[in-house]
Amino acid sequence: MQNEAKNNPYYSRTDRTTVNISNEEWKKILSPELYAVAREAATERAFTGKYNEFDELGEYFCAVCGNHLFRSTEKFSSSCGWPSFFEADKEGVYYKRDLTYGMDRVEVLCKRCDSHLGHVFDDGPKPTGLRYCMNSVSLEFVPDEQI
Ligand SMILES: [Zn+2]
């Protein structure tokens, strides 16, 4: 478990009940880096995230609430500077149209805690053709042997 999750009473990898917590409360629980991305839709700088160049086998969970988001076999090596996946756990994420910064994008959010994770683009590899461009700080990786 990341340090992050230790002081977070809402974190659970098994409880799928929706978490409805105010940003005021999240601010007390999350690190400033995670809060900025998850609750204010900030984007971490390209090529700085811990999972950008990372290819171990395991599962990726939401760093805010522990919801399952991705499997390592859905991750692919992309040159964009952020960890990229071609498929997401359908129970893990939902989508919102994002028209900020003069762009027309699709925002990816955690279904359980409503936190911002990143965006999805249609220039990914087969079989889906999708590229889930995620912030490392929003993800918590757990290797297979610890699942
Ligand atoms: Zn979450």
UniProtKB/TrEMBL annotation:
Reaction(s) catalysed by this chain's protein: L-methionyl-[protein] + [thioredoxin]-disulfide + H2O = L-methionyl-(R)-S-oxide-[protein] + [thioredoxin]-dithiol
Boundaries of every MsrB domain copy: 23-144
Question: E.C. number, please?
Answer: 1.8.4.12
Q: What class of enzyme is it?
A: oxidoreductase
InterPro entries per UniProt: Met_Sox_Rdtase_MsrB (IPR028427), Met_Sox_Rdtase_MsrB_dom (IPR002579), Mss4-like_sf (IPR011057)
Q: Which UniProt keywords apply?
A: Metal-binding, Oxidoreductase, Zinc
Q: What does the entry give for GO biological process?
A: protein repair; response to oxidative stress
Listed GO MF terms: metal ion binding; peptide-methionine (R)-S-oxide reductase activity
Q: Which residues form the signal peptide?
A: none
Gene3D superfamilies listed in its UniProt record:
Peptide methionine sulfoxide reductase (2.170.150.20)
A GO cellular component annotation in the UniProt record:
cytoplasm
Its cofactor is: Zn(2+)
Which NCBIfam families does this one have?
A: peptide-methionine (R)-S-oxide reductase MsrB (TIGR00357)
Similarity comment: family membership: Belongs to the MsrB Met sulfoxide reductase family.
Task: Quote the protein name from its UniProt record.
Answer: peptide-methionine (R)-S-oxide reductase
Organism, as annotated: Chryseobacterium shandongense
